[in-house]
Write a structure and sequence with these properties.
This protein has 313 residues and is α+β, with helices and mostly antiparallel strands. The chain is 43% helix and 14% strand.
Length: 313
C-alpha cells in the first residue's frame, strides 16, 4: 500500500471513531442552545466573546447589585451605558425627576409579577441630582464575610454538600468532588436530613474572607455543572467541559458574587490573562455563570430550601 492510500485509510478510521464517540454531557447540553435564552442573546450580540466586552458586562452586573444577576444582564443587553436606573414613580418620589418624552424603558422581570420598566438617569429631567447611592454594605469586610460564610455553609447542607476544613498547606484554596461515602446524611434540623452528595474541603488556614471566597469558587464549579448534577432541574450536567472553560466560568462567577457583596476578590490568573488585552475568551456559558451567581447569592443570604427530585431522576 502506498503512503497516500495508507493515509486515506487512517483518516477514514479516525472519522469512523469520531462518529462512534459518544458526546460528553457538556456537548449534549450545549447542543440545546435554543433552551438557553441568555446564551442565545449573548451569541446574537456577537460581542461578549471578546474579553473587553465580557469584563464590561461583569462590571456592569456588579454595579447593579440591587437587581438580580439575570435582570442586571438584561439591563446591560438593552443599555450598556446605563448608570443608575429606577421606575418612573421612584424617580418622581425619591428625586423629584420626570421621564423625558420618548425615553425608551429598560424592561426587566418583576418579582411576583410580569415585567417592570426602568429608566436610566440620563432619561430624566427635574431637580438637581444629589450624589447617587453606591448601594454598599456599611460593615467591615471580614464581618460581612463572616455573616455570609455562616449562611453559606448552612445552606450547603440543603444540596447535600458537606463542608470541612483540612490540615493542608496555606496554598490550598479548596476543592469539591462527589462523595465516596455511602448512606451518610447531613442533618439540617431535628426533622430533616439529606444524603451527602459532595465533599467541599477548604484549608483550615483561611480567614473568613478567604474561606467565603474559596467556598464560592468551588460552588461555582458545582452549579455551573462542571462535576455533573443529581437532577438536571437543579443545575445542568456539563461533565466533560474543558478545564480552561471550567476555570474561566467558576472564576468569573466567584468574582461577580464577591464584587456584588463588596468583598475584595482580584482577578485570578485564569481571568487576568484575558483582561490584559482584547482577545477571544473560551467558549463559556453566560447563562450558567449567571444562574450559579443567583443560586450562591441566595445561599449567602440564607434563602434556600430542600430541592424536589424529578420523577425520572
Amino acid at each position: 500500500m502506498d503512503n497516500s492510500r495508507h493515509q486515506d485509510s487512517i483518516n477514514q478510521q479516525y472519522l469512523f471513531e469520531l462518529d462512534e464517540r459518544k458526546p460528553t454531557h457538556a456537548e449534549l447540553w450545549a447542543s440545546q442552545q435554543e433552551k438557553h435564552s441568555l446564551d442565545e442573546i449573548s451569541a446574537a450580540m456577537g460581542t461578549l466573546q471578546y474579553s473587553d466586552k465580557f469584563f464590561e458586562a461583569l462590571e456592569f452586573m456588579a454595579r447593579f447589585r440591587k437587581y438580580s444577576p439575570f435582570n442586571a444582564f438584561l439591563m446591560y443587553v438593552q443599555n450598556p451605558s446605563a448608570t443608575f436606573a429606577l421606575t418612573a414613580s421612584h424617580w418622581l418620589s425619591d428625586f423629584d425627576r420626570k421621564i423625558r418624552p420618548g425615553a425608551v424603558p429598560l424592561i426587566l422581570l418583576q418579582p411576583m409579577g410580569p415585567v417592570m420598566f426602568l429608566f436610566d438617569v440620563t432619561d430624566t429631567d427635574g431637580a438637581p441630582l444629589p450624589e447617587l447611592p453606591q448601594l454598599k454594605l456599611d460593615l467591615p469586610e471580614n464581618e460581612i464575610s463572616g455573616k455570609l460564610l455562616d449562611n453559606l455553609i448552612e445552606c450547603c447542607k440543603y444540596d447535600g454538600i458537606r463542608v470541612t476544613r483540612a490540615q493542608s498547606g496555606s496554598q490550598l484554596g479548596g476543592v469539591i468532588y462527589p462523595t465516596e461515602t455511602i448512606d451518610q446524611e447531613i442533618e439540617i434540623n431535628d426533622n430533616l436530613s439529606v444524603p451527602v452528595r459532595y465533599e467541599l474541603v477548604i484549608s483550615e488556614h483561611l480567614d473568613n474572607n478567604q474561606s467565603f471566597i474559596s467556598i464560592v469558587h468551588e460552588l461555582s464549579h458545582l452549579y455551573c455543572g462542571h462535576i455533573g448534577s443529581p437532577d438536571a432541574r437543579w443545575w445542568p450536567d456539563r461533565l466533560g467541559l474543558g478545564q480552561l472553560e471550567c476555570e474561566f466560568e467558576a472564576s468569573a462567577a466567584a468574582w461577580l458574587i464577591c464584587s456584588r457583596m463588596d468583598l475584595t476578590y482580584g482577578l485570578d490568573s485564569t481571568l487576568e490573562e484575558y483582561s490584559e488585552q482584547v482577545q477571544q475568551i473560551p467558549q463559556i456559558s453566560i447563562e450558567c455563570i449567571i444562574n450559579a451567581v443567583s443560586t450562591i447569592e441566595r445561599m449567602a443570604k440564607g434563602q434556600t430550601k430542600i430541592r424536589k427530585k424529578s420523577n425520572n431522576s
